[in-house]
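Hi there. Long-time user, first ticket. I'm pasting a complex I've been working with (about 630 residues overall). I'd like to know whether the download I got is complete or cut off, because the file seemed smaller than I expected. Thanks.
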Amino acid sequence: MTVATIFGVPMNALFGQLMLGLINGAFYAMLSLGLALIFGMLNIINFAHGALYMMGAFVAYLLLEHAGIGYWPALILAPVVVGLFGMLIERLALKPLYKLDHLYGLLFTFGLALIIEGLFREFYGSSGQVYAPPPELTGGYNLGFMYLPIYRGWVVVASVIICLGTWLLIEKTKLGSYLRAATENPALVQAFGINVPAMITLTYGLGVALAAFAGVLAAPIYSVNPLMGSNLIIVVFAVVVIGGMGSILGSVVTGFMLGLLEGLTKVFYPEASSTVIFVVMAIVLLIKPAGLFGRAS
Amino acid sequence: MTNRASANGTTALYALLLVAALAAPFFLYPNFLMRAYCFALFACAFNLLLGYVGLLSFGHAAFFGFAAYVTGHSAKIWGLGPELSVILGALAGAVLGLVIGGIAIRRQGIYFAMITLALAQMLYFFCLQAPFTHGEDGIQAIPRGYLLGMFDLNNGLTMYYFVLGVFVLGFLLIQRTIHSPFGQILKAIRENEPRAISLGYNADRYKLLAFVISTTLSGVAGGLFALTFQIAALNNVHWHFSGEVVLMTLLGGMGTVLGPVVGAFLVAAIQQYLAAFGAWVSIFQGIIFVACVLLFRRGIVGEIIALLRPRGKAEAETVSVTPQVHEPARQGV
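Hi, the file is complete. Here it is re-exported in full:
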């Protein structure tokens, strides 16, 4: 039997890895989108983003374990719960930090991430919890050149929809235009009688809800694990540096591209697959320090 | 006048601390003290960047941990003496600092923090895979050897005084750097970079030099740590450890000379006494982070200084910002 190959790599393996890359890219895109949203409005880099992503996955798992609430309701409920939690944090703790150096926001959210992750690790241990995908999304198709598990296809589709939806919300709606205006000049927008502090709270809630949504999507693929967010968030930081945080669409495109690149590296030079994004980041910084889609500051 | 008095007071305080440090191993657990000195040197080096240049490096564990590997490898595989091994570790910190710093200083503020974190994570993956680090096992049973071929460092007390000596030297070097004209220029860059540039200072070169000094001393701390505990392992290159050095500096008081030392002793104590409680170490550290940011941003030492002289301190701060006239070439790289 002959196996079709491309550059000496079996086609099945190549497309399989590209699919995995696309899925990683979907998570990078959703997380960096949330980071960019929050940064635009609050001028804070949300270090707790990875922890809140993990929290989203855990809320879905706990809803199933303790209330018997399944995947589909959890996909809505978990982002709402985590989003509300985020808004509470913003109101209580982040608000006094806006007047200070941006670094304090980073330090605060780092501490928050340590607390959240530590608590989940204390109560659920470091080993993962299994979360099964819903029955409608199990199984897969044989596409001839590769085997496509339905759930993975769904993750990519769902993340594209969510990213596009967020983009439309920001670029094409009234609320979005207020958000963009408040990002540019909060004082002026406030003078027009728009409640800017409420918009800031809402933005943080939205960014955090995106992270939690990604967490629920990730739950059936990776096990639900207290540490699932902490390594991911560092890669997402690199993605954000590469893309520059100036544009929403930019961060989405960069996320998907880098996921694919990582998948390709896994095929052709597996040893470098964990570091390739960081190498790209270094190169981009040397050539275009503001990032691919960033505005020079 | 008051300056002279406070300088005398500071000298007296240092003398007192030195006497206490010399006597300490007879009263406290020497291993704990040595760990604290390594952390303190590391935190002081880190504070040189955060407190005096305003650069938050979130990847400083890379320099500490990688230097620990280099020192461990030199001592164990190449059979070099302890002083030479630590020097090689410092050199590794310097070279790594030159590369990472060279890339990271292209961006400022939050981006600088994210870039150093990402590059440090890259080094973490490298250390995970490279054969000489022995992956998850780390380099174990590193021989302490004979200092200058004469003093047996396997003797706990000799090792203690060696570590203390290196720490004091490193501390004095950082002190000297902060109070030199070079240090004044760093503060000027921290307060107003465009103005410093307009005065003719090449801000990027100063920042890079400060970065390399900091990573070199972090390398010394890492090498010393590897010799003391005879192990170089992955947890010292992990981002979590980078967070810990930030915590030491923040808790003690960034931009103060003694703050990082106080912070290092406290963090070492947390590690020592809460180790049995697993994840509570990180929960507790997170709570301290949050409390520091929300309640006492000046840190312990910073708050004490503010209490002792409420007005004099603010004055000293503004004075240090004004750049003094010096030919930049003199301090050039």
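A couple of notes from our side: The interface with chain A takes residues 56, 58, 103-104, 106-107, 109-111, 113-115, 117-119, 121-122, 125-126, 129, 239, 243, 246, 250, 278-283, 285-290, 292-294, 297 of chain B (CB under 8 Å). DSSP finds 15 helices and two strands in chain B.
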